[in-house]
Write a structure and sequence with these properties.
Layout (H helix, E strand, L loop, with lengths): L3 H5 L5 E7 L3 H16 L8 E7 L7 H8 L4 E5 L5 H11 L5 E5 L3 E2 L5 H10 L3 E9 L9 E2 L4 H6 L5 H15 L4 E3 L2 E2 L3 E5 H6 L12 H11 L3 E12 L9 H19 L4 H23 L4 H16 L10
Parallel strand pairs: 1-2, 1-4, 2-3, 6-11
Antiparallel strand pairs: 4-10, 5-11, 6-10, 7-9, 8-11
Helix pairs in contact: 10-11, 10-12, 11-12
């Protein structure tokens, strides 16, 4: 029988990275699904690790999970401050030993072998930088797992809050019309991103300027700029609940989303498109204020938080000063 030292010396193919902030129950379910699925795959059964980084969660419950799940291949780390998603992932990735990284949200369940086909694609095509699976939702005819925005076309429709749904419908249509099980996109939703570790290190990981949201769009943009393709593998599926943290605080969720989108536009768009996209983002906020004012009799609490967030963003010139460390 192999001893502990021999186990630790095994080559790690895949490092799964999960960032926690008060989502211990979701992580418990996620870990159970990961252990069950990966342990049943001969290629990965003894060549994977899971790294969980706690972003200074106020409830301090993660040590309970560590006592339950902590092993030689499931590692727990704790940050003294809330680093945000991107910087938290960077810190966790620095601890990873795997050839490939999977950044996985806590509110996901992986119940089928998505690992073998995705890693095989990486191994057979060196032009690929990032791959993402289908992240199942309960909305029929829409697929938000990948996309092509921000662009002028979708942003115009976002004046009425419809751009994201139009893009989701477009991606859904592509999955039905495509003769292939995967195709090129501009970005993969950050709930499940596969990337080769050497590529992640080559682009210096996630941009530290993004606290939360759009960091995966930015990462895909920079990986693509290095000459690698971004692939959406729509026949490989996980279950992603989605927006668990956001549903608890619509104010923070909205501030972070719009501030990060503004940051992305300032970093990656140039004249004259930049001078069109940024005013459009402001117009979107004004139209959203009107929409939520109309909806306030039906959704008073949510409307109040949404309107407050837009007023905050206007006052602070699209800067998220709440999460500055």
């Amino acid at each position: 029988m192999e001893d502990q030292e021999q186990i630790l010396q095994k080559t790690i193919i895949l490092s799964v990275i999960i960032i926690n902030y008060n989502l211990e129950e979701e992580i418990s379910d996620c870990l159970k699904s990961l252990i069950k699925t990966l342990s049943a795959i001969e290629k990965f059964s003894d060549s994977f690790e899971v790294i969980i980084l706690d972003n200074n969660s106020p409830n301090k419950k993660l040590p309970e999970l560590e006592r339950k799940f902590g092993t030689h291949y499931i590692h727990f780390f704790y940050s003294d401050i809330n680093l945000g998603f991107g910087k938290g992932c960077n810190l966790a990735a620095s601890k990873a030993k795997g050839k490939y990284l999977l950044f996985l949200n806590p509110d996901t369940i992986v119940s089928e072998d998505i690992f073998t086909p995705i890693i095989d694609i990486f191994e057979n095509d060196k032009t690929i930088g990032i791959i993402g699976p289908k992240q199942q939702t309960r909305k029929p005819f829409f697929d938000f797992s990948a996309g092509y925005s921000p662009n002028l076309f979708f942003e115009i429709f976002n004046l009425a809050g419809l751009g994201v749904f139009l893009e989701g419908l477009f991606i859904y249509a592509l999955t039905k019309l495509s003769s292939k099980d995967h195709f090129n996109v501009n970005w993969i939703l950050g709930a499940a991103i596969f990337i080769k570790k050497e590529i992640f290190e080559k682009v210096n990981g996630f941009d530290r300027d993004f606290f939360m949201f759009f960091e995966e769009v930015d990462l895909c943009k920079r990986v693509n700029a290095e000459g690698y393709r971004i692939i959406y593998h729509h026949t490989q599926k996980i279950h992603h609940i989605g927006s668990v943290s956001g549903k608890r605080n619509y104010f923070l969720y909205t501030v972070r989303t719009y501030a990060s989108k503004y940051l992305y536009l300032t970093k990656h768009f140039k004249f004259p498109l930049k001078q069109l996209m940024i005013p459009l983002l402001y117009f979107q906020m004004f139209t959203q204020i009107l929409i939520w004012l109309l909806l306030s009799p039906l959704y008073y609490s949510k409307s109040r938080q949404k309107i407050k967030s837009f007023l905050y963003l206007i006052k602070h010139r699209m800067r998220n000063e709440i999460d500055l460390n």
